[in-house]
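Something for you to look into today, if you have time. Could you write out one complete protein record for me, on any chain you like? Leave the record below and I will have a look.
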Amino acid sequence: MEFAHRWKQGVLAIAAASATVAMLWFGDGLNPVWPLMWFAPLPVLFFALRSSWWAAGLTAAGAWFLAGLNMWGYFHLLGMPFGVWLGIFGIVAVFAALSVLLFRALVLRGAWWSGLVAFPAIWVALEYVRNLTTPHGTGGSIAYTQLKFLPFLQFASITGPWGMTFLLLLFPAALAIGLHMRNQESRRAFSVVTVTFCVLGAVLIFGTVRLITSPRGPLMRVGLIASDVPANVDVAANGADTRRLFESYAVEADRLAASGAQVIVLPEKLGVVLDAENANADPIFEQLANRTGATIVVGEVHVSGAAKYNQARVYQPHAEVLSYDKEHMLPPFESPLTPGTTLVRLPRQQQTWGVAICKDMDFAAPASRYGKADVG
């Protein structure tokens, strides 16, 4: 009898973990299918309420750890060792187990509301501490999976990603409690689910109203160019190599402008440009901007004395060249570069633009400083 019980629990653990892994695999990562993240933790949470504590912990840790393999290809592309991936997703697996075990303990003791809040609260705590203590900011937050769910995304204007993560995990926790207690205490189970749905409904109504009522600026057609070179290929050396690369990009930028692109964005760190070489490099895109009327943003490694900057140079028609230096560097690849400190504002018709580069988007600043400077 004991063997049959253990065998059944093992099968249920594998089924729950497999379902959660599948939804996390496609619901998180670089191209997330956002609806899946709302249900991904549900199988493991429901299983935890019907199993032993050790089975619940192992199932949760295993599910999140295995789901993290969907990012291994990206880590490998960046040239990161396996140990880095192992450390990051090992910590995620530990926190997944802790959050599920706390949820299980509180719910089974009758502290339903505390259990409901505990599961998302631990994840938010993990993301917030990681934001404060690592050079990656909000990178890796599961709130990023919801970027295409526009009504929900508006909640970030009040709480940042933290509120999004909390509600995103509150939903499956409420469903797990409701399913577990639907027969024994249906009224209380119904109240937990109903309150959660009402909170989410209020957030989505707020987001929908904000989308409808927010002022709309003029639409701009943006062209993007990338050469798709392997990640381990260094940027072009200063001098002739960089000039040739810039000229080849200028040809493609010209084609985009001819097809109607009003703004053309090139990759960051295309080539190395010394202070003394700006007079030769800038005219390539200045002349193109003047002739086509397009705004062109070009990434380069700018060398000024002993300092090196990850810089975006902005070429506008018949205007001086503006430059923005990236503030937040991606370690270890950009650790030798000097962080920038200055915002760049581009006055346009009916609106003002700002410039930021890649890793800057994982931090509240410079975006918050741009917002205070009336950048739309």
Remarks:
- The longest strand covers residues 295-304.
- The mean pLDDT is 91.
- The first helix runs from residue 2 to 27.
